[in-house]
Amino acid sequence: MRYLRQEIFKEIGKKGQEKLKKRIIAIIGLGALGSNSAELLTRAGIRKLLLIDRDIVELSNLQRQSLFNEEDIGKPKASQTKKHLNKINSDVEINFIIDDLNIENIGKIFSQRKNFDLILDCTDNLETRFLMNDFCIKNKIPFIYSSAVGSKGYVFNVIPEKTACLRCFLKEATQLDTCETTGVLNSITNLISSLQVSEAIKILLKKDFERNLLFFDIWKNELLKIQINKNKNCGCCVKNNFEYLNGKKSSKIAKLCGNNIFQIRAKFFDKKNFANLKIKLKKVGKVIDFGYCINFENKMTIFNDGRALIKAINQKEAKSLYSKFVGN
Fold it and tell me: Which of 24, 36, 219, 310 gives the lowest tally of CB atoms within 10 Å of its CB?
């Protein structure tokens, strides 16, 4: 009876529901998109979910991350997501990993990758997305890209050997907009996660799925389908040069001597990026501008070439802070 309303939907039916009960999905990132998508898939009756996230729940998350509540603040998103989902549907097997997905652990985490039917990209930075893109293309695992900042959101299905991949149209990790610096409406994150899960069910049931990049601006009520063709010179899905997976394109991070200072090097800044970043950070905290670099909240010193020095407890926290306030 749990799935009755879903089973009488003719595009799924009882046979489709039985297929969903055998499917295994990994979700990378458990912010607004990831936690919402995880909840919808759990309610839909997926067999197994693997949840991966490095962050903890913060008060500011509750505006849009509806799975969490005030009792979750300060606790890992991955463990709390599992806790809440187990109460929603105890039939779904849910495993979680509290960690940053990177080139050093992605192979180990997905060592049983043949068992995964689909991976959902709900991360907050392009470098991790490109890493996943490389991994999924190389190992022929379908995945769905999703993002939402401000009032805008995107969804794109990447099906190895059938569609374009992310690097066909996103050349390098150049995005600077984040929820922390630009803001975000909770309505766009709910919409994008709903679209992502709808596409996921289509792919899992081998139904016709969307091949265009879906774009929505929920504030302006703009709805677009953007045709994305496979780039004949794509380094990833055509030439199989997996530069993010082999570490050639990864940002460099190192711990410096002193009071837990980490240096992160990125190679995507230009003068316009740096000027825009200054403006955005001034809206959310104290910024001291030295011209060639800025100090933000006495925690981050960001240079005009993208390099940053960050005070953090560990490397994971440093990467999280960089991702939240700088981007990429």
Answer: 219
Bridge partners of 10, per DSSP, are: none
Q: Which pLDDT score is estimated for 243? A: 92
Q: Which residues are catalytic?
A: 179
Burial code (b: 16+ CB inside 10 Å, e: under 16) for 102-122 equals: bbeebeebbeebeebbbbbbb
133 vs 142: CA distance, rounded Å: 9
Tokens of 77: 């998103």
Q: Quick count: other Cβ atoms within 10 Å of Cβ 58?
A: 14
At 83, is the secondary structure helix, strand, or coil?
A: helix
Say which residues have a Cβ less than 8 Å from residue 175's Cβ, sequence separation at least 6. Answer: 125, 126, 327, 328
Nearest CA to 49 out of 118, 124, 125, 123 is that of 118
Residues of the chain with pLDDT under 70: 112-114, 172-176, 257-259, 266-268, 328
Structure tokens that stand for 92 in this block: 């779904």
- In 3D, which of 152, 146, 136 has the Cα closest to residue 198? 146
User: Is 181 within 8 Å of 283 (Cβ atoms)?
Assistant: yes
- Which helix (DSSP H) or strand (DSSP E) does residue 294 occupy? strand 293-296
Structure tokens at 25: 């999905």
Query: What tokens does 226 get?
Result: 């953007």
Report yes or no: 244 and 131 within 8 Å, Cβ to Cβ: yes
> Contact at 8 Å (CB) between 74 and 57?
yes
Judged on CB neighbours under 10 Å (0-12, 13-18, 19+), 42 is buried
End-to-end CA distance of the chain: 44
